Amino acid sequence: MITLNLSSDFNCRPNLLQNISETDNSSLTSPIMSLHLFSLLIRQNRWILEGELCNLPTVVWRPRFVNYCAQDDVMCEDELDWDDDDSVTGWARNFLNESRLNRPNFQSNCIAAEISNKKMGSSSITNILPRMERLNGPYGMYATVYGVQTKVIHVAHPVPARAILTGAGVLEIGGTGGIPEGSFWDYGGFPCLQSIGRIFRMRMTDRNHTDAFVTSKKMSMKRRMSSSSQRMLTGSTKYPAYDHFKNFSGDGVFTADGSDWKAKRASVIHCLLRSANMDDLLEIEANRAADSFVSEVANALEIRKSRGKDEKKTPVLNVVPMLQRSTIGLIYRLITHNNVDFSSATTARDKGRDCAERAESSSLKSSSPRSSADLASINLEEVSSEYSSRSKYSEQEEQIKSLLPTYLQSVTRIRMIVLAQSRSIWYLLPRWLYRAFSPMYRDEERTMAPIRKFAQLACENALAGSPLALLSLRDSHSSYAGGRGTSTKVSKDLLDEAITLLFAGQDTSAATLSWTLHLLSLHPDKQERAFMEIRSVIGEVKTKTISKNMISRMPYLDAVIKESMRLYPVAPFIVRKLTTEITIPIDEEFAGSRKDAKKTISMPASTFACIWIYALHRNIKLWDRPDEFLPERWIDPKLRSRDLGQEEYGAYMPFAIGPRNCLGQPMAQVILRIVLARILSKYMVLDPRIEALRKVIKEEDKVGFSPIGLRKDMQAGFTVLPSNGLNLQLMERT
Ligand code: HEM
């Protein structure tokens, strides 16, 4: 039996693990908290009776009340006034003084600063790595006990990660020896299953699988797995680990489960990725997104000029909202074929213009993706009815454009609310209690209103032949049930899918581009190399459209994006619930030379597994110089050979792996490369803090100076953006 010291943080199993716990300032006085405490105690004792949780060091991790509304709002600019030289110099002096405290270890100090616990929200993400290293369980895993029902395993190693995400090893049990046609693997796009099956001598029992698919009454028949082979093939499920997303993305493909998910995923892949001319559209729209970014910059400069700012100085601009506007335009047009330009520049120009005139010009002048690509698949009646209702369309376009700023603020915020919810006491309680009593729920509802409205307009505006219109015709997306926020025209399923796709396509791309620009601005030499490569492929013309063929000839640009996604995977962790017990061999290093050492480790069914993609990507055992931004590691054979992570399947997974990996990955790969190449060919991006530091820095400091200390903290949401935006100088290339 164990003793809990209630006056301190929860620590348990002192025989098993180092003294580790999360500390926070929340009190334990509320009745709900006491209940929780009680449940923890029961659970705690049960663990002892049951024995070790999968031989892992076990920690009781107290859920936090997270202040998700912290000042940490990405739409805000830093408080620093970049036009005021004194304030900038003051910041630089302060930064240096703080960093100098521990000289001569200036560099390591900077690294420590990056993973420090400065902000409560981001600490949960940035602090996980050192915690895992300290615990050093088998494969660097450790277990957590949340409450009566919940046990959690934290994973930052490819072996358990791929076992959990892909159900690898299944072939040995099923003995099918190949990928069954139409199975999960078909949809997951999961390669080399066989070799992985061979690598793990893994036992997966079918025990408890039904338990894992226990569903709500409403969906039970739909969700239940349709065949036993499918059950066997799934080592894990999102249900119910993603239930706190349900208010946001409903039953869209991201949150759906079982056969409902399977049907939806197949439909989305069919309508989105395999729709006619998607390849051409992607190229066109990625270039348009880059054009939109350029016009955002021009617009910001114009505004600055009109405010009488010093024209000689290169202005500092927060590029995050600009990238968000560019990427939402891209994904919106791709899924609706509705030709709306969301950049702030056009919105400003549009103001004051007559609505009818705007309707005329947008329909006639536009290089609508639909006109360039999809006309063949649309019948003439539809085309003429579309043109006769031109003014109606433009009204809706107007509506959606004016909703855009609120929509972007809301999606940025909902990321934080959803994460905060999963780390709060509400996560452990029934959903009805959360809905009835939580102020967080009311906030969530307020935040969701513009998101639902935006998605609904997208569904209504979707032109025939577009992915959303095609989806609306499919059985998988025709349910009108539970219609909060839905119109009579738009099914609940379609609305959920539109919310999912708009978010998944926009937020992740904008965040990845932001992190990449951030890293390049801190490493001008690497930026220059990327620029030279782009220039050599596209030639001198700066605004030239960039094609897929061109980016395939840019290996360094490819390496830059891979490296940026390694350091800042925008989904820093993902969660699954194990549907079966999974057993993997214990790594030799952990087992040591003890004769009685166990040879395997079992992760029991029903356990929640938190796969830390962020920590996997920076695991010192997998990556040489893991915290450094080294795009060269992906192309230089010498550097490559030092990274075990490049060989090991599951060590690098910015898009996740397995049947529930990112279905938009092929699109994202093209979007990121084209937009980035276009931006870098037009601008040199500089972090203004470097110049400010250069002015005050002393010679002796330069020796140990590392840009790592200037890296931005991560704003904690279920996806991560640079906190407080990203202020950069964009100097036009000559
Ligand atoms: C840089 C770009 C992107 C990154 C890094 C990314 C990353 C991811 C990750 C890690 C997951 C797994 C999430 C989880 O299991 O919790 C995921 C799922 C998903 N992504 Fe992406 N994504 C990106 C772009 C896109 C795009 C452009 C789309 C589509 C328009 C998209 C649609 C989806 C969908 C629908 C899922 C859920 C799939 C399922 O559960 O079956 N993503 N993405």
UniProtKB/TrEMBL annotation:
Keywords: Heme, Iron, Metal-binding, Monooxygenase, Oxidoreductase
Binding annotation for heme: 662
Composition bias type Basic and acidic residues, residue spans: 351-360
Keyword Oxidoreductase set for record: yes
Pfam families, alphabetized: p450
Keyword match Oxidoreductase: yes
GO terms assigned for molecular function: metal ion binding; monooxygenase activity
InterPro entries registered for this protein in UniProt: Cyt_P450, Cyt_P450_E_grp-I, Cyt_P450_sf, Cytochrome_P450_Monoox
Source domain of life: Eukaryota
Low complexity biased stretches: 361-373
Region named Disordered: 351-373
Cited Gene3D superfamilies: Cytochrome P450 (1.10.630.10)
Cofactors named for this entry: heme
Similarity comment: family membership: Belongs to the cytochrome P450 family.
Protein name according to UniProt: Cytochrome P450
Organism expressing this protein natively: Stephanodiscus triporus
Organism lineage: Eukaryota, Sar, Stramenopiles, Ochrophyta, Bacillariophyta
